């Protein structure tokens, strides 16, 4: 039997199950990858203190890394919410000292409910230590804007320029996701030579919690299976678009995307790919 590829997420636990580690593992499972996790922080609001982010210490992160990377072995990994400068530096050092080649960095900064997922003083470490190790980074519009010092991004042309400029940070591929602009959901990929756009229809829903986590987890799984970057992005955008289309909520607030949607309904969204 051929074993599934081993994929690792290094991210925050989202107690509600829609985002972070939980979204990543559900995505890995749907795409037949063997999911592993390193929890860097736990997100869950305490009813009395209102504290929302609970950190995991350095030793625990190192221990999880040793188990996943040195004991089981990792074919590809992604990073999500790392929250502090110290965690970013630790994780970047661990990745750099490993032989893992497929590294997807989702530069998570702000959640859908406006929760803060990265401390302000962590931005430099993200740019200087972690992003240069990446096969691909996957910022959304606010994240790309922050990485570019607060630049306003409103059109697809702006996203193309942003992708080209972010390439200077040292990642091999830049995917700027345009889901937060108006009109169709157009994402822009720059690989150092060519700009490619990926277009999906806009889906009229508020239930998109964890969509970014799901997208980058899918990219990690597809890259680890050996797909070229463009193909991995195309398949992943299709997967996340179908998951968004079937998003739902158990509560009155923003709910999860439905990770099982593509499998359950046998649908895959057609993504329109254009060069230049
Ligand atoms: O969707 C961004 C995100 C990532 N990681 C964790 C989160 C969230 C959003 O809430 O909680 C742990």
From TrEMBL:
Domain Pyridoxamine kinase/Phosphomethylpyrimidine kinase: 16-257
Transferase found in the keyword field: yes
Enzyme's top EC category: transferase
InterPro entries, sorted: HMP/HMP-P_kinase_dom, PM/HMP-P_kinase-1, Ribokinase-like
GO biological process, one term: thiamine biosynthetic process
One function term, GO molecular function aspect: metal ion binding
Short name of any one Pfam family annotated for the protein: Phos_pyr_kin
Family indicated by similarity: Belongs to the ThiD family.
PANTHER family linked to this entry: PHOSPHOMETHYLPYRIMIDINE KINASE, PYRIDOXINE KINASE
Identification of the protein by name: pyridoxal kinase
Gene: thiD
């Amino acid at each position: 039997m051929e074993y599934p590829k081993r994929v690792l997420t290094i991210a925050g636990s989202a107690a509600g199950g829609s985002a972070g580690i939980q979204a990543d593992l559900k995505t890995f499972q749907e795409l037949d990858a063997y999911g592993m996790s390193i929890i860097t922080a736990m997100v869950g609001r305490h009813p009395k203190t209102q504290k929302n982010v609970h950190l995991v210490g350095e030793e625990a992160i190192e221990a999880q890394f040793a188990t996943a990377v040195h004991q089981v072995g990792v074919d590809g990994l992604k990073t999500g919410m790392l929250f502090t400068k110290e965690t970013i530096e630790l994780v970047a050092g661990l990745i750099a000292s490993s032989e893992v080649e497929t590294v997807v960095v989702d530069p998570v900064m702000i959640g859908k409910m406006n929760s803060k997922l990265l401390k302000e003083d962590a931005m430099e470490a993200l740019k200087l230590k972690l992003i240069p190790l990446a096969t691909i980074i996957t910022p959304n519009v606010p994240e790309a804007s922050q990485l570019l010092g607060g630049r306003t991004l409103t059109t697809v042309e702006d996203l193309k320029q942003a992708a080209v400029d972010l390439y200077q940070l040292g990642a091999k591929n830049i995917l700027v996701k345009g889901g937060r602009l108006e009109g169709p959901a157009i994402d822009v990929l720059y690989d150092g030579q060519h700009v490619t756009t990926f277009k999906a229809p806009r889906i009229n829903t508020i239930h998109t919690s964890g969509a970014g986590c799901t997208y980058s987890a899918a990219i990690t799984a597809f890259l680890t299976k050996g797909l070229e970057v463009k193909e991995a992005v195309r398949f992943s955008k299709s997967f996340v678009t179908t998951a968004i289309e079937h998003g739902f909520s158990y509560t009155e607030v923003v709910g999860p995307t439905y990770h099982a949607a593509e499998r359950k309904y046998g649908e895959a969204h057609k993504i329109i790919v254009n060069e230049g």
